[in-house]
Request: fold
Amino acid sequence: MADRVYIFDTTLRDGEQSPGASMNTEEKLEIARQLVRLGVDVIEAGFPISSPGDFESVRRIGAEVGDAVVVCGLSRAIAKDIEVAAEALATAKRPRIHTGIGVSESHLRDKLRITREEALERAVAAVKLARSFVDDVEFYAEDAGRAEPEFLYRMVEAAIKAGATVVNIPDTTGYAYPEVFGELIRGLMEHVEGIEDVIVSVHCHNDLGMATANALAGVRAGARQVECTINGIGERAGNTALEEVVMALKQRRDVFGVETGINTREIMRTSRLVSSITGIRVQPNKAIVGANAFAHSSGIHQDGVLKERTTYEIIDPAEVGAGASRIVLTARSGRHALRHRLEELGFELRDDEFERVYQAFLEVADKKKEVYDEDLEAIVGESERTLDETYHLQQVHVSCGEPGIPTATVELVARDGRHLIDSSHGNGPVDAVYNAISRIVQVPNDLTEFSVQSVTRGIDAIGEVTIRVRAEDGQVFTGRGAHPDIIVASAKAYTNALNRLLAAQSQKRTVEEEL
Ligand code: KIV
Ligand code: ZN
Reply:
C-alpha cells in the first residue's frame, strides 16, 4: 500500500484570517461537517485564546465530530494559550494542541526579541505543558522557510524530545521555492534525531504563488501531513489549496507514490460552501474549483475534447464533483463544437442548413461573449425563417433621439436579386423601420401585435420580436425575428410576416389559376 499523506485543514483557523472571512460558530460547524464528509484527517477549528467565538467554535466542533477526525486548537508557546486550548478541546474525542514559536532571525530579533536559547526553552516548555493535557501535540516552527536550517534542526529535535507527535515546518511568509523547501525537509529527515517517530507537516503560504508547489516538494522529501485550506484562502495571499494538493497527489501518483483519505467527489461542494459562507469568490480560472476549470473555449480544444476528453483534460470533472466538461460556445468555437451542441439540443441539420446556421452563429458570437442554448434556438429559428424568402433584409439603419425625427433606411434583396432601398420616418425607430419596409414591399396590411422578449440573460442577450399583421382579406400572419439589436429583430420580424403573407397570396393565385 502507498504511504498515506494526512490532510490537515485549516480553513477555519488560517483560512478565517483572510480579510473579511470571519465566520460565526454555526457557519464553522456547517463547514466542519462538510470537511468530515470530504474526509480530511485533521480540522484546525480555531485559536481558542484569541476570542470567545473561537473558543466556542473549537468546543462545539470537538463535540460534534466525535472520533471522525482529529480536532486541533492553535496556541502560541505561552502557558495561558495552551491551557485555554486544552479547555476548549475538552469536548473532542481526538484532541490535538498546536503550539509553537518563531525560528527565523527576523521573528526572534524583531518580533519576539529573544535569543535562540530562550526560544528553545520556551518551545520545550510549551510542548511539555501541552503534552500534560493531550497525547497529540503538534509543534510549529514559525517562519521556518526563512530560518537558518541548523537552528531549525535543533529546535525541531528539542520539540520532539519534549513530546511533540507532529512537527510543522511552515513557510509562513511564502518565501520559499520548491527546490529549496524540499531540501529543507530533506535536511530535517537526515539531521534530526527522532524525526522518524513523528509526522512531518508542511504549511505553506502563497505570497509568490508557490504554496502548492512547495507543499508538494515537501511531500517528495518525506513530509506526511499537508496543511491547507479550501479554495486556498488564508492570511494575505492565502495557503496551499486543499483541492490542488489532493488532486496533484492523486493525478500524479506516479511521481509522489502517496495517497490521501479525501473523497474527491466532495471537493466542489466543499468549495462552494466555503465560498458562500465566507463571501470570498473563487476566481474563474482557479485550478480544480474555478468555474472555467473544465470549460473549453477555443475551436481547436473543443474539437479535441469532443473527440476524446483527455486530449485537453487531465482530470475528469466528475471526479471532483464538478459535473461534466463544458464546451463554451464563443466566436472561437469551430463547426465541430457547434454541430455537437445543436445535435444535443435535438437539431439535425443538413450540411447547407448547418452552414447557414454557422454563419449566423458567428455573427451573434461576434457581438456576444458567450452563446447560450437559447441563443442557438433563436438562431436556428431565424435561419429556418429566411428559407424561401421573397424579400431578404440586407441592412437597416436608424437615427433617433430626443429631439429628433426617428428615421430609418432599409435595404431588402428581392428573390430575383434586385436590391431595393427606401427610407421613412415614424413615431419611433421601429415605426420608421416598418414604414420604410412597407414602402418597398407595398402590400396593404395592419400591424395588430408587437412583442419583444429577451431570449437569454444579460445586456447583450438576443431579443426575439413577434408581430402579427392582418392582410386586406382579414387573414393574420405571424412574423418572428431574433437579433441582439431589437431594431434589427423588429425589421426581420416584419419582413418575415410580409414574406408569409406574400407566399399565401401567391399560393392562393396558383390555386385559383388551376381551377
Ligand atoms: O503560517 C504560519 O506559520 C502559521 C502557524 C501558526 C502554523 O499559520
Ligand atoms: Zn499560516
